[in-house]
Structure formats: C-alpha cells, structure tokens
C-alpha cells in the first residue's frame, strides 16, 4: 500500500486528500487506459472495460488492444447491463490469487468481474487494526458483494457478519470462502436489505469493532427496497456509529459515486465519528497503468482509525 502518513489536524486546517495505491499484483495488471476504456489482465486473460474517466489517448497502439480476449459493450445507459464480446473463449470462471487469498473471477452483465483490485490498498490497514484487538474482533461488512474484504478479516481471526441484498453475489462470496480454504473461519452470511438489517442489529444490541461499507449509488433490496446513496449515506453512517463497540478499531467506506467527492466522505466521517476522536483519512483509490504510468482514480474512500 502506498500512501502518505495520515495526520491529525486542527479545526482550522483543511482536510488532506490522499491517493492510495495497492501493492502490485502478479495476477492483475492495468495495462493501458484511454478513449473511455481500460485494458486489463486478470490472470491469463486480457479484458477491455469501459472507463469514463480515461478521456485521454491510449499509450499503446491499437494492435495491443486487439490482443484482448474479451471486451464489454454497453447496451443501454452508463451503468446498465451489457454484453461481453469474446474474441477468444473465456471460461465461465477462473481463479486469481493475491496476498495469500484465492478467489473466483467471472464476466458479469454489468462489466464487473467480482474483484476490485484497488480495494487491496486497504488490506494492510485492516490487518493492522485487527491485530490490535485484545479479544476476538467482530467485523460487519455491509454491501459485501463477493466477499474479499470479508475473507481478509476472517483470515485475521475476526468473527465476520457479511450483508448483501443479492443472493447470487452472496453465493459467489461463499464460493470464494471455499476457494480460499477458509471454510473454518467464522462468517455469518446475511441476504437482506442493509438498512433494515442495521436497524434490527441496533434493537438486538449488537456491537462491532470494525465496520466496512461499499455502498452502491443505487440498489434494490431482496423485497424491492430502494437504496439511493446520496439520500441515505448520512443516515447510514449515523446508524453504523450506534453499532460500534466501546473501543472500535476502524470504519472504512468506499464509494464509486462520481457525484460524491472524497472530501464529502471526509466531512461525513468527521461529523459521525466525532465522539470517538481518532484519525480520519479520505482520498481516492488509484490504479496505475503499466503502459504510461498514468494514475487512474477508481473510487473515493473515507477511513476512520482509532489511532
């Protein structure tokens, strides 16, 4: 993980925005970017996916891009479903490994592959915080998707509660648990609307030492519940604070909403986590292409640590 050291600030100092890059992967590479697309390697397969921020010209010639095994074509809307055009046959799923974790990759109708390599920039932070626990730590993962953050926490011996409204995504996460050889770990898999679940947890008196969130811009719960990030984020953060233990270890949020800046996430955390003191960092998760060493922002993040 590459990042400037977080610092405490006085009330008069502006927030410092960080760029956080993951350590290099053997099984993943951002090869090139440009013309609204990115050329990536997932294991042995090269993929082309849309990337709205890559408005510059590619560094590599078109012949390099033509070597991709599959490319994603949108059918309607920027975030709507689309179609994978396979130039060469790509398996239904294949396994990758990184930092001692094995997991499955697939081509989905929404251009995702089930893994966000940029998230691994925070895996060392997670491990550092969980290692400070004086008892078995409890971790709540909201909008857990395919479960890689869940598995990193479980590897550290935490008792993890993984919540996602999608049953197929949860099954994928469970398959990743098996692929990683972590069947012995304590993971509670919950398919539910996140908002309703956290409210029930408050009524039960449940408490967690760490909370990890990766909320979508828009989503639907299992019973058609509507989630809109802009409308619900502040409420969700206040609710999550009610679920923290007396001496929590950390709270981490990623968001891919282009209309929510990292400064916004910083301010939301500063407001909700004020009673706990600690340190807040915010910024962007960044990948760098190997063709021209250009940084590409992938997501905004906000992070609270007890230290």
Account of the protein in words:
The chain is of the alpha/beta class. It has two domains: 197 residues, Rossmann fold, CATH 3.40.50.150; 71 residues, Sandwich (Immunoglobulin-like). The chain is built from seven helices and 17 strands. The strands form four sheets. It has an eight-stranded mixed β-sheet, with helices on both faces. It has a five-stranded mixed β-sheet with strand order 2-3-4-5-6, with no helix packed on it. A two-stranded antiparallel sheet has the order 7-8. The protein is globular, with a radius of gyration of 19 Å. The two termini are 18 Å apart. The relative contact order is 0.15.
Highlighted features:
307 residues, alpha/beta, Rossmann fold, Immunoglobulin-like, 2 domains, eight-stranded mixed β-sheet, five-stranded mixed β-sheet, 7 helices, globular
């Amino acid at each position: 993980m590459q990042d400037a050291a977080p610092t405490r600030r006085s009330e008069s100092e502006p927030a410092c925005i960080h760029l956080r890059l993951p350590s290099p992967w053997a099984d993943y590479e951002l090869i090139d970017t440009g013309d609204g697309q990115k050329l990536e390697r997932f294991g042995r397969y090269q993929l082309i996916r849309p990337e709205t921020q890559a408005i510059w010209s590619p560094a590599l010639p078109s012949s390099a891009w033509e070597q991709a095994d599959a490319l994603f074509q949108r059918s309607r809307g920027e975030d709507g479903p689309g179609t994978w055009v396979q130039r060469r046959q790509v398996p239904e799923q294949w396994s990758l490994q990184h930092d001692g974790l094995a997991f499955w990759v697939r081509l989905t109708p929404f251009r995702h592959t089930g893994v966000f390599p940029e998230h691994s920039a925070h895996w060392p932070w997670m491990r550092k915080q969980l290692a400070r626990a004086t008892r078995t730590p409890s971790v709540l993962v909201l909008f857990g998707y395919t479960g890689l953050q869940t598995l990193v926490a479980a590897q550290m011996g935490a008792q993890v509660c993984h919540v996602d409204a999608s049953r197929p995504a949860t099954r994928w996460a469970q398959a990743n648990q098996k692929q990683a050889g972590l069947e012995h770990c304590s993971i509670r898999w919950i398919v539910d609307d996140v908002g309703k679940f956290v409210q029930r947890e408050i009524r039960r008196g449940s408490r967690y030492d760490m909370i990890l969130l990766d909320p979508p811009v828009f989503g639907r719960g299992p019973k058609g519940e509507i989630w809109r990030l802009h409308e619900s984020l502040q409420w969700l953060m206040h609710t999550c604070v009610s679920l923290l233990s007396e001496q929590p270890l950390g709270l981490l949020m990623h968001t891919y909403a282009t209309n929510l800046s990292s400064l916004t996430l910083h301010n939301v955390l500063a407001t909700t986590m004020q009673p706990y003191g600690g340190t807040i960092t915010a910024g962007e998760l960044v990948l760098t292409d190997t063709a021209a060493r250009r940084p590409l922002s992938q997501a905004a993040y906000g992070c609270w640590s007890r230290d």
